[in-house]
């Protein structure tokens, strides 16, 4: 089961969920020591336990472009396809910031546009800092709201091309998504 999607898993955007991560990155993940030792026989529950222990996020790093544990766990989430209610609960729970980012990233890859906006936009008010491992193996800091901004508005992050989603105003018009209220709106009107 190490590199195969679970039987009965639904296709996402018309393809195997693992294929949302580019082939070269996926191959590096499969060949990594972390994947072989830590991710081989994970269930959703044991994956959450591993994600709680994450100390940074990022893509690939170093001369041979090894994947970060964050990226390995993201691929494993794509294999396991946990129930969306579990993913929403992980996003709403502020206790573990790296787990929250992992669940947010997963939702952005596989979720419907309305669900993505409804669940990720509240994280704009989470200003905690997280460590990011750069391709040069150096670390830098980002705030969670910056990562969410990138997930919602950019084409890719951490060597992963994100599926296109409609602009928020289009989702409001088509799917009845409530207009977003800024946390600064109250301060500006008073």
TrEMBL record:
Required for pre-mRNA splicing. InterPro entries: PRP38. It is found in: Nucleus. It comes from Mitosporidium daphniae. GO terms for cellular component: spliceosomal complex. Keywords: mRNA processing, mRNA splicing, Nucleus, Spliceosome. Pfam families: PRP38 (PF03371). One of its GO terms (biological process) is mRNA splicing, via spliceosome. Its main location: nucleus. This is Pre-mRNA-splicing factor 38. Belongs to the PRP38 family.
């Amino acid at each position: 089961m190490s590199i195969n999607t679970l039987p009965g898993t639904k296709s996402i955007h018309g393809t195997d969920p693992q294929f949302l991560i580019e082939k070269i990155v996926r191959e590096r993940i499969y060949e990594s020591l972390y994947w072989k030792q830590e991710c081989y026989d994970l269930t959703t529950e044991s994956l959450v336990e591993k994600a709680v222990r994450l100390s940074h996020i990022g893509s690939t790093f170093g001369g041979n472009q090894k994947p970060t544990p964050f990226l390995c766990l993201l691929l494993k989430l794509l294999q396991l396809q946990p129930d969306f209610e579990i993913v929403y609960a992980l996003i709403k729970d502020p206790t573990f910031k790296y787990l929250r980012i992992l669940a947010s990233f997963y939702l952005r890859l596989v979720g419907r546009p309305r669900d993505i906006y409804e669940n990720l936009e509240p994280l704009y008010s989470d200003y905690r800092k997280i460590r990011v491992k750069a391709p040069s193996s150096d670390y830098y800091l980002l705030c969670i709201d910056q990562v969410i901004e990138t997930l919602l508005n950019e084409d890719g992050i951490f060597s992963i091309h994100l599926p296109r989603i409609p602009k928020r105003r289009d989702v409001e018009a088509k799917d009845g998504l409530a207009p977003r209220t800024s946390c600064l709106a109250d301060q500006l009107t008073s």
